[in-house]
Amino acid sequence: MLVVMQSNATDAEVRSVCEKIESLGLKAHPMPGAGRTAIGITGNQGALDLGVLESFPGVVECIPVTKPYKLVSLEVKPDPTIVRIPTPSGEVLVGGGNISLTAGPCAVESLDQCLAIAEQLKPTGVHLFRGGAYKPRTSPYSFQGLGLAGLKILEQVRKHYGYGIVTEAIDNESLDLVEEYADVIQIGARNMQNFSLLKRAGRAKRPVLLKRGMSATLDEFLMGAEYVMSEGNYQVMLCERGVRTFSDFSRNTLDLAVVPAVQKRSHLPILVDPSHGTGKRHKVLPLSRAAVAVGADGLLIEVHHQPEKALSDGMQSILPSEFAALSSEVQQIAQLLRRHVN
Ligand code: PEP
Ligand code: MN
């Protein structure tokens, strides 16, 4: 159910509708938009009869939301969400015509490694640095990440270079720490349907980057985001990172068609990760070009200064100099589409 407010409704009118909703044991999600505020209602088990709200001052109408996902949908919020990421060197905007680039290693391996990559990325002007301190690996014998020590390394990168930090949480315990140290909480493909983790991320005070599960349908992907939003965190970015298919020439099949499909259904920004999406270094540039051309709101790129020595995902990591070329190319493509790369 959705309560549509008049475009000139006051804050007090919005608040009073929210209070009424909450007094009925339901949850109210005010979603301010460009033209009007809508209030999404969740927490009901069956159909709702909230006709009473239509008599509240400032209310235009109450309408049922027809999609299984609600807060994520364009019905609730027709204009694009712009996620705002505060970083030491200024706010990074993602969505609504703002394209964000994020670069860095798959895993945080050492302070020297991260500082070297951060230093070499600096001239590219990228604002967001990625790197996993908690690595969900297929094999228990593979490098699992440095944990808290890795987060402290990322803190150094942030302090010395001013990057915003994007890093993954793999469970509730690591999410507490990631929330403390990072600027964006990444939820990885393997956890896209870890509902208790999604709910915990929904109570976090930081934006969430939700990666698509490797076999997730579009509805399942959007429902993952709905879990986060249902807890009150509306700063959610989606990220396509390739899905499993019969194709045998790449690690995953990067499903770029999901970008316009998401945009037809949701106001949330949709990013693309061509590194995991292909698994091969030489495919990262061409698919980055394509991702921006198809309308992606950002790119997540694995970059390593010594990819042959990387402890994870070296085969798909590009050099900082290659990232510089990529960044310049995608900026030109974005310009053609009247979009802006941060
Ligand atoms: C990553 O970004 O390093 C990662 C593990 O990605 P995914 O969850 O998409 O596999
Ligand atoms: Mn990786």
Can you characterise this structure?
Helices cover 32% and strands 20% of the residues. The chain is of the alpha/beta class. It has two domains: 2-63, Alpha-Beta Plaits, CATH 3.30.70.1140; 83-341, Aldolase class I (TIM Barrel). The strands form three sheets. Strands 7, 8, 9, 10, 11, 12, 13, 14 and 15 form a nine-stranded parallel β-sheet that branches. A four-stranded antiparallel β-sheet has the order 2-3-1-4, covered by helices on one side. Strands 5-6 form a two-stranded antiparallel ribbon. Strand 10 (184-187), helix 5 (195-202) and strand 11 (208-211) form a beta-alpha-beta unit. It is globular. The relative contact order is 0.13. The mean pLDDT is 96. It binds phosphoenolpyruvate and manganese (II) ion. Phosphoenolpyruvate (PEP) binds next to loops.
Radius of gyration, Cα only, in angstroms? 20 Å
CATH class of the largest domain: Alpha Beta
CATH 2nd-level architecture of the largest domain = Alpha-Beta Barrel
Distance between the termini: 36 Å
- Please bin the fraction of helical residues: 25-40%
**Portion in strands:** 15-25%
Bound molecule kinds, no repeats: phosphoenolpyruvate, manganese (II) ion
CATH fold title of the largest domain = TIM Barrel
Number of DSSP strands? 15
Low-confidence stretches: none
Number of helices: 10
What is the 3D shape? globular
Could you give a short account of the major beta sheet? 9 strands, parallel
Mean of residue pLDDT values? 96
Overall SS class:
alpha/beta
